Amino acid sequence: MTTSTTPTSTPTSTPTSTPTPVQKVARDATVRHFLARIAFAIIMTVVGLLFALPMVWLVLAPFDATPTLSLSWPDWTLDNFARLAENPYALRSIGNSLLLGIGTMVIVVVLGALAAYAMSRIRIPGRDGILYGLLLLSSIVTGTAAMVPTFQIITQLGLINSYVGVLLVLAGGILPTVIFILKDFMDSIPKSYEESARLYGAGPFRILRDVVAPIARPGLAFIAIWTIVQVWGNFLVPFILLRSPDLQPAAVLMYTFYTESGQADLRLISTFALLFSAPVLLIYFVVNRRYGFRFHGGIKS
Fold first, then answer.
1. Would you give the end-to-end CA distance of the chain in angstroms?
2. What's the pLDDT at 42?
3. Which of 17, 77, 172, 225 is most exposed by smallest CB count within 10 Å?
4. pLDDT one-digit tens code per residue, 189-205
5. What is the pLDDT of residue 128?
6. DSSP-assigned letters across all residues of 42-70
7. In which domain, by residue range, is 56 found?
8. Does 151 share its domain with 182?
9. Is 296 in a helix, a strand, or coil?
């Protein structure tokens, strides 16, 4: 009698797949990239809040009956605007700032466009060295460092307490940077357009007006806005060169808003600051809507 033995089947376990070193490196890189994106978003949020909170204070404080340096819900009132209107120099100073800003902008855009066009088209020996030298000197010798000789020159010319002297000083300090920026715009304009205009008898100034200027219009618009912003907040030059309160711009007049006890009058300062920033924002949005600002080759246009 034979007994048949059936083989007993042992359960087989499926092998667990272990990640390869390449997969581990890719997974770690994905996790690090995800964490870096989260950290970047958190940092940008904090930075955005730091910039946004002063703007919120600027909008709310003028309507607060008792504004403070801290951000809080205002006790709504319009008395601050009525009190500011009682100041005989407040609204006039904003008009003075507009006059200085627009006057400097006209001088800078016209002279800067002519100089940049000449620098772009005429082969002057040492052209790049001259351009970079002007830009370097204008950056090192700032308005504060050159204020004493500037004051002496303006005094000898008899232009103290006049807008002409202030316009010349402001335009002279801005022109080197404007020429440097506009030259890149002029270099990007094809010379074939100008050659075609010359075939029809157009002269250099007509080519600049009818051919070059329309193509470089975004760059000229950017220079115009940038110049107005630079002049709008300038305090030192008009403070030193202008003596009459009737001629002082808004940036200088804001320095006089103090109470009888010598404390800063936050009611007038906040209200005037809101009115002071409104024209620049309005000009920017109007020009941006009309011309637009784009980026070409790392240069804003």
1. 104
2. 93
3. 17
4. 888 888 888 888 888 78
5. 73
6. HHHHHHHHHHHHHHHHHHHGGGBSS--SS
7. 22-77
8. yes
9. strand
Q: Residue 129 sits in a domain of what CATH number?
A: 1.10.3720.10
User: Other CB atoms closer than 10 Å to residue 283's CB: what's the count?
Assistant: 19
Angstrom distance (rounded) from CA 155 to CA 149: 10
What phi and psi values does residue 153 have, to the nearest 5 degrees? -65, -45
Same domain, 43 and 168: no
- Reading the block at residue 29, the tokens are 């890189």
- Compute the distance between CA of residue 269 and CA of residue 281 in angstroms, rounded to an integer: 18
Query: What pLDDT does residue 107 have?
Result: 94
In a domain, 262, yes or no: yes
User: Are 72 and 147 within one domain?
Assistant: no
Residue 126 DSSP label: T
**Same domain, yes or no: 45 and 123:** no
Q: What is residue 141's predicted lDDT score, i.e. its pLDDT?
A: 62
Inter-residue contact 206 to 193 (CB < 8 Å): no
Q: 243 Cβ partners below 8 Å, 6+ apart?
A: 160, 161
Number of domains in the chain: 2
Which pTM was predicted? 0.74
* Residue of 222, 274, 250, 249 whose CA lies nearest to 58: 274
> For residue 92, what are the contacts with CB-CB under 8 A and spacing of at least 6?
246
Residue 269 and residue 187 share a domain: yes
Q: Which residues of the chain have pLDDT under 50?
A: 1-3, 6-7, 9-10, 13-14, 294-301
- At residue 268, the pLDDT reads 87
Query: How many Å apart are CA 193 and CA 216, to the nearest integer?
Result: 13
In-domain check, residue 17: no
Nearest to 82 by CA among 282, 301, 271: 271
**Measured distance CA(226)–CA(278) in Å, rounded:** 16
